[in-house]
Amino acid sequence: MLNPFIFKANDIRGVTEGSEPEWDEAGAYALGSAFVEVFGLAGGSVVLGRDMRLSGPRMSAAFVEAVLDAGADVVDVGLASTDELWFASGHLGLPGVMFTASHNPGKYNGIKFCHPGARPIAPEELVTIAELAQAGRGAAKAETRGTRSENDVLGAYAAHLHGLVDLTGIRPLKVVADAGNGMAGHTLPAVFPGGADGPPVEIIGLYTDPDGNFPNHPANPLEPQNLVDAQATVRERGADLALVFDGDADRCFIIDERGEVVSPSTVTALIASQELGRHPGSTVVVNNITSRSVAEVVAENGGTTVVTKVGHTFVKAAMAEHDAVFGGEHSAHYYFREFWGADTGMLAALHVLAVAGRSTSPLSALVTDFTRYAASGEINSTVDDPGTIIEAVAAAFAGRGEADRLDGLMVNGPDWWVNVRRSNTEPLLRLNVEARTEEQMAALRDEALAIIRG
């Protein structure tokens, strides 16, 4: 079973639990066979990992069987965060497969693919995999079946991250870390082992037991209600900041010592300034709904900004094309040249800790210069006809700014912008607004929402 709706712009995601699943073990087997065919892997190897979702063992096992039947070997890293799988692909030089549905509810599962070195697959490659799997036309069974081996890369992953960010000499930090019962609960103890062997960071863990039922709150830090526990704990424990990860831990939200959310655009500007200090004149990649303050900070630090569509495959492709040192998205995906151009929430967190730990000022003061505009945040709406709604917004804002269609509709005014686009992963229309003042942003936001929601 492979419902065509599980194939998204960047990956695969669909319901696997309950009475009406959208894909099953037979579908996973078909996808494994198609993957070997499209990537030409017969006689080669692939590295595979999975998150804590309840369907992960059976769905990934079916995929593995197909790969083995097609004559390819599987290096199984077991439970892993998505950025740990990207690390394994880069470290081992193998194409990668990650079974995860990121921040989606527990009844979902999905797959993210990459080429060796964590390089993104092209959208047309995913389309071909989907077509072959749905038609049952994957790789032929090989005369010699592949072999499966296990490789725990968690220690090497943590060592690689510490080799990229120097935390020696920082002041002691007290840090709340909300794993949301996702895979950050798996990686945090390796990255912050405590004692003399680790950096001087006291971790106050929230929901660090990986659990595909998500018993405490959904592992989606884009929703404000999923941040409140970390915000409250920062205030109660007098912590320096908090880290809030999504389900597969490739994203990380930052909360300051007051319990206030630090915008991912602000974090992008902060890290960009640090990376440009180490690599002068480099390029930084952002998507087109990242704050204008990022491009301003990049220019002030002698760098160049490249703008791309929302989505990890688009950002990674731009990172490779322009040899960019760093990339950031509004959704708290952060990409690093030194991490094979892939996204990693944990490495972004380490960069923020390094900045905070080398200053006696609180984080709220450190990020002030990187926050220059008022933003609405991403506002989602379910609509029957997204295309018609987008054109209605375009008509309402016609003549008031420069419009482009790089990703949905973007209208750029002199000191504001409005973006409306379809989600790549969910049946939603997404609105983002930014302006110089809070009042201007609110007026533009409310005007656009009145059109979207009628």
Provide a short characterization of the protein structure.
It is an enzyme of class 5 (isomerase). The chain is built from 14 helices and 23 strands. It has 454 residues and is an alpha/beta fold.
Low-confidence stretches: none
Mean pLDDT, as a whole number?
96
Overall structural domain count: 3
What is the assigned CATH homologous superfamily of the largest domain?
Answer: Alpha-D-Glucose-1,6-Bisphosphate, subunit A, domain 3
GO molecular function, one term: metal ion binding
Protein name: Phosphomannomutase
Pfam families: PGM_PMM_I, PGM_PMM_II, PGM_PMM_III, PGM_PMM_IV
Family: Belongs to the phosphohexose mutase family.
Walkthrough of the structure:
- It is built from 14 helices and 23 strands.
- The protein has 454 residues and is of the alpha/beta class.
- The longest helix is centred in the C-terminal third of the chain and has 16 residues, at 438-453.
- The protein is 35% helix and 22% strand.
- The model has no long low-confidence stretch (mean pLDDT 96).
- Strands 1, 2, 3, 4, 5, 6 and 7 form a seven-stranded mixed β-sheet that branches.
- The chain is globular.
- The chain has three domains: 4-152, Alpha-D-Glucose-1,6-Bisphosphate, Chain A, domain 3; 156-262, Alpha-D-Glucose-1,6-Bisphosphate, Chain A, domain 3 (3-Layer(aba) Sandwich), CATH 3.40.120.10; 374-453, 2-Layer Sandwich (TATA-Binding Protein).
- Helix 1 packs across helix 4 and helix 8 runs parallel beside helix 9.
